[in-house]
């Protein structure tokens, strides 16, 4: 239904305060939502990193910031290594990587490493987002 | 004897090592590189010069990368010749390394035209870490520089020198900067920000002579342009382009054109010998033919494909094309494929241009298939356009939306999404 709560809760989860009011009113720049609500009426859905098995962003990364974790299968991004060259944005077939609000590095879904269920899934009021493991 | 030998340890060599290890955890691998610590990001040497990154940040793989992958790292060593019938590589000290499978990933070297005075102290090329370190050692006393060539390397070194406070003059033979990857409109957008940063851009010209100081002719004091104008400077950087380092295969059965010829599995014309990266002519899916594309992401991918095949896992190179993501002077730019068709009447060109916001989005179509994308400022979702290009998708039904800033996955017709992203519908 395109309510956008996934983006709100993603922003909060990746804020310093983890508090919805403070994240939106006090933090400057506001943390980037790593999930993206796409609307093209009547279609709407949320897109976030697919943690591809053979991830083009990892192969294309110039600095070694984007890596595939062999144990967890996650595609991880290290903002300390990232140089904001935007090469990953050029090759991600889902358009799931964004420029961070700082404009200096990219930002993408980390599947909320600290949570059992990612914030976007846990807070989707319509059950449109589901979190499950599938074999590649 | 090592099962696999890789000559060159930059993007393609690293990609190959990782692919081989994915398939074959134990087969012995020897890597030969003339650099002491080759696992750094070459595109980042400008960040080293600008001060944005230190050497640690430039390492694109961990310091122990070779140990961790159980590699015999022959770093700081040069491969001098090949014997392909007896299958060994000769090194600089006369020693041999035998191989079962060989990858040539020797990369490119700067093209340096004959310019009177180019042997003077203060003249640099700019492709390796040692180039950057040499330049850094001169920066403290330097106030101005002339950069010859306004392509990818020329503009990035210009930006780095500007950040270091140097007065830079960029000299380019073409009428526009970055003319291989941008059309005149996008090129002008970049020129504007570069000029704003205090750089002088001299197009339609080159440097005909590098002059020395009156008191010491061996040290650079200026560059004479083809117009006759003499630009005083402390440094001259030659950044005209790179050419493949094919010397190693000269006189062997490995066929070359400008670079080493390879098939889609990155095999050369000799069995068990592969080539990847800037030294190879790999497949370009836009042109439907093999050509030189000296770009880091493609080199890494080509190396990976070679590595899989060397280790016995069949893999085909999907093809690349001219593709660059840029961050020059703070404006994000992505250019893929044909930016500026020579015979425009054969193409359909869609454009959205909002100069006041510095936004430019262009798609070049041929028979309703995207063959070129240029994005300035609004670069998000570029990868979806690239995916459509790579898959040769007919975009007739939604082509007007390609240049919209709202273009996204949801823009695509459902049937197309199902076909292009089958994993999403399991």
Based on DSSP secondary structure assignment, what is the total number of beta strands of chain A? 6
The CATH top-level class label of the largest domain in chain B = Alpha Beta
Distance between the termini of chain B: 47 Å
CATH superfamily of the largest domain in chain B: FAD/NAD(P)-binding domain
The CA-CA distance between the termini of chain A, in Å, is: 29 Å
Q: Give me the count of strands of chain B.
A: 26
Q: Biggest interface between protein chains, with counts per chain?
A: A-B, 36 and 43 residues
Which fold name fills CATH's third level, the topology of the largest domain in chain B?
A: FAD/NAD(P)-binding domain
% residues in beta strands of chain A: 5-15%
The averaged pLDDT of chain A comes out at: 94
Q: How do the SSEs of chain A run, as a string of H and E?
A: HHEEHEEHEEH
Q: Walk across the major sheet of chain B and give the strand order.
A: 3-2-1-7-19
Number of helices of chain B: 10
For the sheet with most strands of chain A, the description reads: 2 strands, antiparallel
Q: pLDDT under 50 segments of chain A (min length 5)?
A: none
Estimated structural class of chain B: alpha/beta
How much beta of chain B, percentage-wise? 25-35%
Can you describe this structure?
The complex is a heterodimer of chains A (136) and B (426). Chain A folds into 2 domains: 1-48 and 113-124, no CATH class; 52-108, Alpha-Beta Plaits, CATH 3.30.70.20. In chain A, the strands form 3 sheets. Chain A has a two-stranded antiparallel ribbon with strand order 1-2. Chain A has a two-stranded antiparallel sheet with strand order 3-4. In chain A, strands 5-6 form a two-stranded antiparallel ribbon. Chain A has helices at 5-13, 20-25, 56-60, 87-91, 119-122; strands at residues 36-40, 43-47, 66-68, 75-77, 98-99, 106-107. In chain A, 43% of the residues are buried. By secondary structure, chain A is an alpha+beta fold. In chain A, 21% of the residues lie in helices and 15% in strands. Chain B is an alpha/beta fold and 426 residues long. Chain B contains 10 helices and 26 strands. In chain B, the strands form 7 sheets. A 5-stranded parallel beta sheet of chain B has the order 3-2-1-7-19. A 5-stranded parallel beta sheet of chain B has the order 9-16-10-11-12, with helices on one face. In chain B, α1 links the parallel β1 (4-7) and β2. The longest helix of chain B is centred in the C-terminal third of the chain and has 15 residues, at 296-310. Chain B is globular and about 60 Å long. Chain B starts with a strand and ends in a 6-residue tail after the last helix. The chains are: A alpha+beta (136), B alpha/beta (426). The A-B interface holds A 36, 38-40, 43-45, 47, 50, 56, 59-64, 80-81, 83-95, 97-99, 103, 134 and B 15, 41, 43-44, 47, 52-53, 57-61, 296-297, 300-301, 304, 323, 325-327, 330, 332, 334, 336, 379-384, 386-387, 406, 408-411, 414, 420-421, 423, 426.
């Amino acid at each position: 239904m395109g309510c956008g709560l996934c983006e709100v809760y993603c922003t909060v989860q990746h804020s310093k305060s983890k508090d919805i009011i403070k994240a939106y009113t006090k933090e400057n720049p506001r943390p980037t939502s790593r999930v993206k609500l796409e609307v093209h009426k009547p279609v709407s859905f949320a897109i976030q990193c697919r943690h591809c098995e053979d991830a083009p962003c990892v192969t294309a990364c110039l600095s070694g910031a984007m890596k595939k974790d062999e144990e967890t299968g996650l595609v991880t991004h290290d903002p300390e290594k990232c140089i904001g060259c935007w090469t990953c944005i050029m090759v991600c077939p889902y358009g799931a990587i964004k420029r961070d609000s700082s404009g200096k590095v990219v930002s993408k879904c980390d599947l909320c490493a600290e949570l059992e269920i990612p914030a976007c899934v846990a807070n989707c009021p319509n059950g449109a987002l589901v979190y499950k493991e599938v074999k590649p | 004897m090592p099962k696999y030998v890789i000559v060159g340890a930059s993007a393609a060599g690293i990609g190959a090592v990782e692919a081989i290890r994915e398939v074959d955890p134990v087969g012995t691998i020897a890597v030969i590189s003339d650099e002491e610590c080759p696992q750094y990001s070459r595109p980042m040497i400008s960040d080293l010069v600008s001060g944005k990154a230190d050497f640690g940040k430039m390492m694109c793989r961990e310091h122990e990368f070779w140990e961790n992958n159980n590699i015999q790292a022959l770093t700081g060593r040069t491969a001098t010749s090949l014997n392909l019938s007896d299958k060994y590589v000769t090194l600089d000290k006369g020693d041999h390394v035998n191989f079962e499978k060989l990858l040539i990933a020797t990369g490119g070297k700067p093209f340096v035209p004959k310019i009177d005075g180019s042997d003077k102290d203060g003249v640099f090329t700019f492709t390796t870490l040692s180039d950057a370190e040499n330049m850094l050692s001169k920066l403290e006393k330097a106030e101005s520089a002339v950069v010859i060539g306004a392509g990818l390397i020329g503009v990035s070194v210009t930006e780095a020198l500007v950040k270091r406070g140097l007065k830079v003059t960029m000299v380019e033979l073409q009428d526009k900067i970055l003319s291989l990857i941008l059309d005149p409109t996008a090129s002008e957008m970049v020129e504007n920000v570069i000029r704003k940063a205090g750089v002088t851009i001299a197009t339609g010209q080159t440097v005909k002579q590098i002059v020395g100081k009156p008191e010491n002719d061996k040290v650079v004091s200026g560059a004479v342009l083809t117009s006759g104008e003499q630009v005083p400077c402390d440094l001259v950087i030659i950044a005209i382009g790179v050419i493949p380092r094919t010397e190693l295969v000269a006189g062997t059965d490995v066929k070359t054109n400008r670079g080493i010829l390879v098939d889609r599995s990155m095999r050369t014309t000799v069995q068990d010998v592969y080539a990847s990266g800037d030294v190879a002519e790999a497949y370009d899916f836009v042109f439907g033919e093999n050509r030189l594309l000296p770009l880091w992401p493609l080199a890494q991918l080509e190396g990976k494909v070679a590595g899989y095949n060397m280790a016995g896992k069949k893999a085909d190179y999907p093809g690349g094309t001219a593709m660059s993501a840029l961050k020059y002077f703070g404006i994000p730019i992505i250019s893929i494929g044909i930016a500026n068709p020579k015979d425009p009447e054969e193409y359909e060109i869609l454009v959205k241009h909002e100069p006041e916001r510095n936004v430019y989005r262009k798609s070049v179509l041929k028979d309703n298939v995207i063959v070129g994308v240029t994005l300035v400022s609004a670069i998000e979702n570029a990868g979806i356009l690239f995916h459509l290009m790579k898959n040769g998708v007919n975009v007739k039904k939604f082509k007007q939306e390609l240049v919209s800033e709202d273009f996204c996955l949801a823009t695509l017709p459902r049937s197309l999404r199902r076909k292009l992203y089958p994993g999403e519908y399991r």
